[in-house]
Amino acid sequence: MEEVNGFLNKLKQSTLFKAVAAYAAISFVFVQVASLVSDTFGLSQQFMQNLIWIFGLGFPFLALVAWAASSRFSTLKILGLFLVILVAGYGSGTYIWVNNFILPKVNQAISTDDYVSAWTMVDRIDAYAPFFSKSQELSSDISSLAFLDVKDSGVQVSWKPYNQSIDEGWRYLGTSPLQEHRLPNGIIQIKLEKEGYEPFYLAANNPSMRFNNTAFEDELGWKIDAIELQRENSVPEGMIFVPEGDFIPAITGQGVQEYYLSSFYIDKNEVTNQEFKRFIDAGGYDNYQYWVDMEFVKDGVSLTWEEAKELMIDATNMTGPAFWEVGTYLDGQEEYPVTGVSWYEALAYARYKGNILPPMFHWAKAAYPPEEIVAPVSPKLLTNSNFSGKGLTKVGQQGLGPYGTYDMTGNAREWVWNIFGGRGLTLGGAHSDPAYIASQTNPMPRFDRSPINGFRTVRLLNPRDMNPFGNDIVSEAPPPPDYYKELGEEAFKIYAKNFEVGPRNLNPEIIYTEDTHPIWIKERVLIDVGYNSEKMDIVIFRPKNERLKSGAVIVYPGANYYRTPPDIDDIDPGEYGLDFIIKSGRALVWPALKESINRITDMNITFPPNEDYRRQFRKLLVNWTVDTHRTIDYLETRNEIDTNNIFYLGMSYGSIATTHVMLFEPRFNASLLYVGGAGFWAPPLSDGINLFPRMKTPTLMLNGEQDYIVPVMMAQSMYTFLGTPEEDKRLVLYPSGHWPLPRNQMINESLAWLDKYTKN
Prior knowledge:
This protein is α/β, with parallel strands linked by helices. Helix content is about 30%, strand content about 20%. The protein is globular and about 110 Å long.
């Protein structure tokens, strides 16, 4: 015992023991004080953990120094020296790390709207260097307060970036009831879990991610409607629960109208090949109860059930989807969406499962984030959906919707319940479609069995929701004949003064020239437009065959170029099927009109039609007119382009609104208007000043008879009131929807029209 006491006394007297003991005491006090003030100074849990690690790692270092220098330095000197080295080294190291390595990356992420990455890096700053005030400033720029209301207590809530897969990267947020939290701007995934309940997944769209051209005001924070978890095994297998409530469908053409839907279940994924095979093996094609009350119509001819079944065969004349062989799917395709099925087959399968095809509003509520009112559809959703054009992919990989569904945009178009003009509607767009199709309906013959048409099913908890959503869609009535009135000469002269363009320097700058494509040479040019000190990009696709100098066609694109446009350098004529114009020897010119592509500011082109909107729209009419003048002015400086032959090409929105420029641009030889017409929601001229009778440009209009977005009566109204002589205008209607139009016919009609009005 005496030996032990003697050892302890020696230990207490040693410099090493004193240094270690003092270090341990100071470390403990420091950590305790830091924990007490952590809330006041915003110190994160990660920082506290790092602090403990730092003191722990410093312990052996201090012991070694104290032992080595015990004969020369006092304990306090050793301890003081170590703490000075520790603080100075940590402070200078973290300062250099934050300013030279982290902040540049944060700023780069913010510049590309990658708020989640920026948030992650700011979290690292808070964890290792919380005393840099810059992190607090950055946090407010890249995040918003989130209020997540969960009806049940004890629910674990996690989140992660939207584009990560379902099985990785979850970050614990807390357990309900939750206090307010800050979460990064943009779209994120949220997961709710509680024992005895079904896990709940959703994609939440932070309002601060809304576009500058939205019609709705951002709020200081964002709140997700109260979420009620479903008991384990209460949700049908393979389906997810969508809660009741009001919503505004983000479907082009629906307007800003609110609907109430009761709760319902919807398939998490598109119906797969292996699931559809079970339907066939169970005798689905032969069980009349799945087909009862269906009106089988093909090419306007009514068919019996037996006659209809003869059309539902695969590539080897056996019953099944069109692209199967010997009554089954191809090897390795079991988890791919079933395609090549008609609307009738999709409905029969839904009945086999005890479900129905989704009414379009139920489909829309499950597909689009609730904050995305009408338009635009989230670029995050679109870029993380299968619009690659590389073909179908396995289900459940991409495009997470707000309540946990996958692939509702891209991959396969999906049949819904509704009928328009005798055709079944498809929604969401396919892998081969341009991304803007995601928010559009596409009427298809109900017997269409194309390789891009798939489906999913729903189970309504309130069957009354079928009405009116399951009824045939009826188009809006056309305006009365006196809706379009020619303006008097004096009034027109006053009006026209708004659109006068004086001579101004273009100051053109060629940004780049690309010669890698086999058909065209691509150029991006920057010019001064002459108002507000603004500049405008023009993308020009010139044919490589220099012997053909047949002029230029200027493109006025659809509404997606004003809502969710591609990067200006990614504009592709092939996406819209316009490459045939370049092949014909004409330059295709794509100006970045005001409020489109890379010139979007704060104007929403589609809604609401109030007085403020109309004032802004009047400004846009002037901007578009000037942009057009300046584009043609620039083309006239190019010797390789025959500017005696300039043509207008409008697509959808470009065939409805921007046609106004033809009133004040005499250099257009003729125009091509694809799927356009007289818009009831926004007359071509604002405040009731309708000048259709003054438009004299030779005009070819190509439209779909089953166009849900631009009904045929809109096309007919525009055609009727155009002031163009009858011999110089033509309206062609195809048995199709909004887009695409039948390609071969479109090409033949378009080239014939261009050739007709090309000057030698």
